[in-house]
């Protein structure tokens, strides 16, 4: 961005363009997967992503850079599609485990790709001043690498991917029909805070559960987005760490988070989805407390940061967010998963846009992390209040 004459504001637009593209495309791709099947949808999305990466590699202005980022965001709007496919081919009992597996791949990508970017930056010189047409340099090499990965993905989809046509939409699962009786609805609403019963009484139990899962996705995704936005800055300004050391801590804890995701099958033998959500969010709150109350804990500054990142990146977020995603998929039940999982992914993208803006507006990381602690605490309260609704609808 700086090379093309942009500043911090332009950098924000470039990042937001990607998320905006994904917000728009996620529900659309989900709908297409239901109508046309998963294979055709994934091929189209990867092709769009490849076009966006090619445009990015040719970018010679900030406008083109922003446009190419938005195109890549559109092509990346298939999180809901891949999760829907997993939901279609797995049982409810094993669904959270396999959701965790595909999330582990995504999580690993977040951890590994910065290393790849650093490799290109270190070993490929900046030849952008050379005349004579297109040249490969440290700025466009990562985009060209994505192009290669897209070609490989298209080949694999064409040769080994087994398509599946989603089931026809049904009006209601038997569980939802059972919950529509007045007596049982009032019993479930009796477990909810009285201040919201008036609003919830006009909604079906299914809708309530969907909204709760969406909000859980927003608060967990938004919280991790804030860490991504100002985490390194906080480490440098508040705890005196070098930025490279802080980045290594985040990458290491992210790698441990992959191991936690791969262990979800074992964890769910002891905890339900609702219990894993509560556990994960509470761990995130504890992690943030090490940043907000570092002086009270009397822990050396660097260790406060390490503990916070470990609890959030390695345990709290991967377990809590993945359990919320698995719960959402189970609540959808026999309905075609694609469109609804697309909206779920889109809500997460919205959180990745709005929460970093909050991080930029608030002055002081302690204020931000304290607000996040409050939001997450309220989320735990609502989940615990509605555990019978969520558990019944997902069973």
From TrEMBL:
Keyword match Transferase: no
Give the record's membrane topology.
Multi-pass membrane protein
Record-annotated membrane-spanning stretches: 38-58, 98-121, 141-161, 196-219, 245-264, 276-297, 303-328, 340-361, 367-390
Molecular function terms from GO:
transmembrane transporter activity
From the Swiss-Prot or TrEMBL record, state where the protein is found: Endomembrane system
Query: Which Pfam families does the protein's record reference?
Result: MFS_1
Query: Which taxonomic lineage is given here?
Result: Eukaryota, Sar, Stramenopiles, Ochrophyta, Bacillariophyta
Gene3D superfamilies the UniProt entry points to: MFS general substrate transporter like domains (1.20.1250.20)
Keyword hit for Kinase: no
Q: Which domain of life is it from?
A: Eukaryota
Task: Enumerate the PROSITE patterns for this protein.
Answer: MFS (PS50850)
Which keywords does this chain's UniProt record carry? Membrane, Transmembrane, Transmembrane helix, Transport
Q: Which InterPro entries match?
A: MFS (IPR011701), MFS_dom (IPR020846), MFS_Domain-Containing_Protein (IPR051068), MFS_trans_sf (IPR036259)
Choose one Gene Ontology CC annotation of this protein and give it.
Answer: endomembrane system
Where would I find the Major facilitator superfamily (MFS) profile domain in this sequence? 1-391
Major location category of this protein: membrane
Q: What is the protein name given in its UniProt record?
A: Major facilitator superfamily (MFS) profile domain-containing protein
């Amino acid at each position: 961005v700086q090379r093309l004459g942009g500043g911090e504001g332009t950098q924000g637009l470039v990042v937001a363009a990607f998320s905006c593209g994904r917000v728009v495309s996620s529900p659309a791709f989900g709908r297409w997967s239901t109508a046309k099947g998963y294979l055709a949808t994934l091929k189209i999305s990867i092709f769009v992503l490849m076009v966006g990466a090619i445009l990015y590699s040719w970018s010679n202005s900030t406008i083109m850079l922003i446009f190419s980022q938005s195109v890549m965001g559109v092509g990346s709007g298939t999180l809901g599609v891949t999760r829907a496919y997993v939901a279609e081919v797995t049982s409810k009992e094993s669904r959270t485990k396999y959701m965790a597996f595909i999330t582990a791949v995504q999580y690993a990508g977040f951890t590994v790709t910065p290393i790849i970017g650093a490799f290109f930056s270190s070993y490929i010189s900046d030849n952008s001043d050379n005349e004579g047409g297109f040249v490969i340099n440290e700025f466009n090499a990562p985009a060209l690498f994505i192009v290669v990965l897209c070609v490989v993905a298209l080949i694999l989809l064409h040769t080994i991917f087994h398509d599946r046509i989603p089931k026809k939409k049904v009006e209601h699962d038997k569980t939802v029909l059972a919950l529509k009786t007045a007596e049982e609805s009032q019993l479930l609403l009796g477990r909810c805070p009285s201040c919201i019963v008036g609003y919830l009484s006009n909604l079906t139990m299914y809708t309530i559960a969907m909204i709760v899962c969406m909000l859980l996705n927003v608060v967990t995704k938004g919280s991790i987005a804030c860490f991504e936005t100002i985490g390194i800055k906080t480490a440098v300004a508040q705890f005196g760490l070098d930025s490279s050391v802080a980045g290594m801590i985040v990458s290491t804890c992210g790698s441990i988070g992959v191991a936690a995701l791969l262990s979800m099958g074992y964890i769910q033998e002891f905890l339900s989805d609702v219990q894993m959500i509560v556990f994960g969010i509470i761990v995130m709150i504890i992690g943030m407390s090490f940043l907000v109350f570092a002086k009270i804990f009397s822990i050396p500054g660097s260790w406060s940061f390490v503990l916070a990142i470990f609890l959030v990146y390695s345990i709290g977020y991967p377990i809590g967010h993945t359990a919320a995603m698995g719960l959402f998929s189970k609540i959808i039940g026999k309905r075609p998963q694609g469109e609804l999982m697309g909206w779920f992914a889109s809500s997460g993208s919205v959180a990745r846009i709005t929460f970093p803006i909050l991080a930029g507006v608030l002055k002081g990381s302690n204020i931000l992390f304290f607000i996040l602690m409050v939001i997450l605490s309220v989320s735990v309260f609502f989940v615990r209040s509605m555990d019978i609704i969520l558990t019944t609808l997902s069973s």
